[in-house]
Write a structure and sequence with these properties.
- By secondary structure, the protein is α/β, with parallel strands linked by helices.
- Helices cover 45% and strands 13% of the residues.
- It contains 15 helices and ten strands.
- The strands form three sheets. It has a five-stranded mixed sheet with strand order 5-6-7-8-9. A three-stranded antiparallel sheet has the order 1-2-3, covered by helices on one side. A two-stranded antiparallel ribbon has the order 4-10.
- The chain starts with a strand and ends with a strand.
Length: 305
């Protein structure tokens, strides 16, 4: 990880750079998407922000500042809910109640405390967005996941850290995210790590709490025993998410029918000549924003005395 005049950056392969964008303005194509898909206009944005702030202030047991410092964060909730303040507020409450109920997965969520999962090279954020402007996260939950070295809890906490950085990117708020899960090398020992309680918690986070537009989930290189993992998650999965989940097996052409080759590594049939082995570089990038995580870690429902 380097820091140039534009901020921290991870160099990935020849000519590829990963950086989290923090500029509030975005190109005309994103402005059109925000208006057409989310109903966003300057007037509606201002009105919805004020209504959401009022609702948060009225929730006395919830600590979440409503000044300008959290505007981009609150916009993430509004954009995922297409600027309906009541729906956004419901999502805010769901998120912080989930965090309160699941401290093992959600408390003290700081990059410096989660180095191990990134050392395993299980998580990769691709440097290029897809053809729809969406941010792509890869999780490799097979060969690279050594259960004795890294827990499922650590993997989920790592995903949370990445998503928390991505949701503060205006382009990601508007266009959404894509999750690519590589199950090559999945074994029965991996399968045993997935419990119904974990599956329900994860899907409650994705479907009702996470302030991000998860547009597609691509499952690739999955062996037959993946069906056992899917069976654990299926009872808690809403139809909307099921319809966005695509299983490709070992068929790269099937994956490329949905994601442009220009934004995918060569090992998935793409044209991007990069390796997915720069987990520590990604960790260093997240650590650059440690102070931001410390601030957001304080948000939530007040502990009962």
């Amino acid at each position: 990880m380097e820091v140039d005049k534009y901020g921290p950056v991870v160099k990935m392969g020849a000519g590829y750079e990963l950086r989290f964008e923090d500029d509030s303005d975005f190109e005309e194509s994103y402005q059109h998407r925000a208006k057409n898909e989310l109903g966003e206009t300057p007037e509606r944005r201002a009105e919805a922000l004020e209504q959401l702030r009022r609702l948060i202030r009225e929730e006395k047991k919830l600590y979440l500042p409503t000044d300008e410092s959290t505007e981009l964060y609150l916009l993430a909730f509004l954009r995922v809910c297409k600027f309906y303040p009541e729906s956004a507020f419901k999502r805010v409450k769901c998120l912080y109640k989930l965090r309160q109920k699941n401290p093992k997965y959600c408390n003290d969520l700081l990059p410096t405390l989660e180095k191990n999962v990134f050392e395993q090279n299980i998580l990769t954020v691709l440097p290029s967005r897809d053809q729809h402007g969406r941010r792509i996260l890869i999780t490799e939950c097979g060969q690279r996941w050594k259960v004795k070295d890294c827990s499922l809890t650590e993997i989920f906490r790592g995903v949370e850290l990445v998503i928390e950085a991505a949701i503060l990117e205006p382009r990601t708020q508007v266009s959404g995210t894509v999750l690519l899960v590589d199950f090559a090398g999945l074994t029965i020992n991996h399968v045993w790590q997935f419990t119904p309680n974990f599956a329900k918690m994860v899907l409650d986070w994705i479907q009702y709490s996470m302030p991000a537009r998860l547009k597609e989930v691509h499952i690739i290189n999955q062996p037959y025993i993946f069906n056992m993992v899917f069976a654990v998650f299926k009872p808690f999965m809403q139809e909307k998410l099921r319809n966005r989940m695509l299983l490709h097996g070992y068929d790269h052409k099937s994956l490329l029918a949905h994601l442009d080759a220009k934004c995918l590594p060569t090992k998935y049939g793409g044209l991007m000549d990069i390796e997915t082995d720069q987990g520590i570089e990604l960790w260093n990038l997240l650590c650059y924003y440690e102070d931001n995580y410390k601030v957001t870690n304080e948000f939530g429902y007040k502990k009962k005395k």
